[in-house]
Amino acid sequence: MSLIPYEPFRQLDNMRRELNRFFTTDFPSLATGFNQNFGALRVDVYETENEVVATCDIPGLEKKEDVDISIDNNILSVSGTVNRINEVKEEHMHRQERFVGRFQRSISLPSRVSSEGVKATYKNGILEIRMPKLKDDAKKGIDVEFH
Fold it and tell me: Which stretches make up the SHSP domain (predicted)?
């Protein structure tokens, strides 16, 4: 019989690992049966010399009233609704994975932007938002008076 040193926290360490694994995997919501990130908006944000650009994957928008874009305190907010007319009767549907319903996402922008002059275009399920950067005043030296 080999002796194994007693480690009182071994079981707690195993439990911690299992809990971490449980909470980092995507699991279905009990209420909807869908993934927690099912309605999450996927967004890429990058900046050029003169503007900040955000591209969002939002397939299924039918008209411009279905999406709302706002910029407040350097935070871009995109929200709206994806409506789909039932192309197939529900009793004939075997699987329904395309997103239908409300979406909302707020993103902190990497640079200060102006809310004037923002251009948004929607094409092939991708919303592109171009926001002009605010021109920062050049650094100004401040003279210190010595007495």
Answer: 34-147
Q: For the segment 78-105, what is each residue's pLDDT rounded down to a tens digit? A: 999 888 766 667 777 777 777 778 889 9
Structural domain contains residue 15 = no
User: 């200060």: which residue's tokens?
Assistant: 112
The reported pTM is 0.63
Q: Is 13 exposed, middle or buried (0-12, 13-18, 19+ CB in 10 A)?
A: exposed
Using a 10 angstrom Cβ sphere, with 0-12 exposed, 13-18 middle and 19 or more buried, the burial of residue 48 is exposed
Strands 126-132 and 51-57: antiparallel
Per-residue pLDDT band at 135 (split at 50, 70, 90): confident
Tally of domains within the chain: 1
Using CA atoms in the order 15, 21, 22, 24, what is the torsion angle rounded to 10 degrees? Answer: 140
Domain at 129, CATH number: 2.60.40.790
Q: Which of 82, 124, 77 is nearest to 99 (CA)?
A: 82
Domain that residue 75 falls in: 37-85+100-134
